[in-house]
Amino acid sequence: MAGFRIHGGGPIDLRAIPHPAVTVAVEFAGRPFDIHGAGGPLRSQSLAAGLAFSPFQVRAESIECVQIRLSPLAAHPMLGLSLAELRGSVIALDDLWGRDALRLRERLHHARTWPERFALIGTELMTRLQAGQMVDTEVAWAWRQIVASHGRARVSDLAAQTGWSRQRMWSRFGSQIGLTPKRAAMLVRFDHAVHRLVEGRTPAQVAADGGYADQSHLHHDVRAFTGTTPTAAANEPWLAADDTAWPVHGGAA
Questions:
Q1: E strand or H helix at 49, and its extent?
Q2: Burial 121-130 (b: 16+ CB within 10 A, else e)
Q3: Within 10 Å of residue 178's Cβ, how many Cβ atoms?
Q4: Which of 136, 139, 159, 161 is most buried by a 10 A CB count?
């Protein structure tokens, strides 16, 4: 969870790129986001973005918001929507939570400090988590193995170790996580690679260390998720905030 306050003399444009977590943002100063992506324009004070959304532009002016990264293992019960339905979409949180989203924004607005706001968000999410249905144990284990291996785990090996067939793993994982295991591994590997690029490592080094066949393979995956080259992706302002908003030892909420 992270808090953002953006004040200035005019609107600020940011580009969101995919991340291996469901991204939720709640604005509480009464100023909506203007979002332009593959699904068309969206104007809302809250949003939820699936795991592998296409890059989208966010225009905001003088906003105050809380952004949350939800593990896909918990996002389904917390959001009240199957991740297979959300998939790569960006939708208004109000469409999922109804008036509960409005009430949450009002409570956030009246809270005096960021810790108070984080506590309000945490309580809301935990209440929803406890009332919802969790993913299969085997699917949760497979996702954690993909993350721990930085996307280099073999799907066939994961299925074998759970005792499931490859077809069953593919089906259950896709319906509960919203991506196929292969696509999930690509996303996790991309996220690890692009953050190494931000650290200043060369594309050749990142490709060699990240499990890519070669530099052109890295280039292909980065372009597939961001629409830009590895060098351009490393300079994305959305990523530049990670070290502050999402500490290295933090992780998805």
A1: strand 46-49
A2: beebbeebee
A3: 25
A4: 139
Q: How is residue 233 written in tokens?
A: 């992706």
Residues 85-106: tens digit of each pLDDT? 887 788 899 998 999 999 999 9
DSSP string, 88-143: T-EE-HHHHHTHHHHHHHHHHHH--SHHHHHHHHHHHHHHHHHHS-PPPHHHHHHH
For residues 49 and 87, the answer to whether their CB atoms sit within 8 Å is: no
Structure confidence by residue, pLDDT tens digits, 141-167:
999 999 999 999 988 899 899 999 999
The residue whose two tokens read 């996002």 is: 75
Give the helix ranges, DSSP H, for the chain. 72-79, 83-86, 93-97, 99-110, 114-131, 137-148, 155-162, 166-177, 181-198, 203-209, 215-226, 230-233, 237-240, 242-245
Q: Which two tokens stand for residue 2?
A: 């992270």
**Cα(122)–Cα(191) distance, integer angstroms:** 25
Query: Taking the model in full, what pTM does it have?
Result: 0.87
CA 151/CA 210 separation, integer angstroms: 9
